[in-house]
Amino acid sequence: MIQATFSYQDDLITSIEVVGHAESGPYGYDIVCSAVTALVFATINSMEALLAYKPIIDQADPEEGGYFYATLEQEALDDEQVQLLFNHLKQGLESIEEQYGEFIQVNNRA
């Protein structure tokens, strides 16, 4: 199961951590994994390409997968557009969770 955890400080999302594997299908055909990966990377790439903020990223070896963490410097976290993108990501992941709850869980951490 994928665990996607959003961390908060003073009502601002400060990071996203994604851990685990969906295992909803064979490698290369796992639609839950593909959807989560696409949303996460599109969001993080947008922060850099559209807003010029460089995310701080930690991730597992691409061949192993199963772990991704991203945050930004405090100045970027205070930006309303960054928060909009984080909330967009959260909404997207929660939509996946509604349909495929046995493969993904979205959590909040203070």
TrEMBL record:
The keyword Hydrolase applies. It holds the Pfam family Peptidase_Prp. One of its GO terms (molecular function) is cysteine-type peptidase activity. One of its GO terms (biological process) is proteolysis. The keyword Chloroplast does not apply. Keywords: Hydrolase, Protease, Ribosome biogenesis, Thiol protease. Belongs to the Prp family. PANTHER family: HYPOTHETICAL RIBOSOME-ASSOCIATED PROTEIN, RIBOSOMAL-PROCESSING CYSTEINE PROTEASE PRP. This is Ribosomal processing cysteine protease Prp. The lineage of its organism: Bacteria, Bacillati, Bacillota, Bacilli, Lactobacillales.
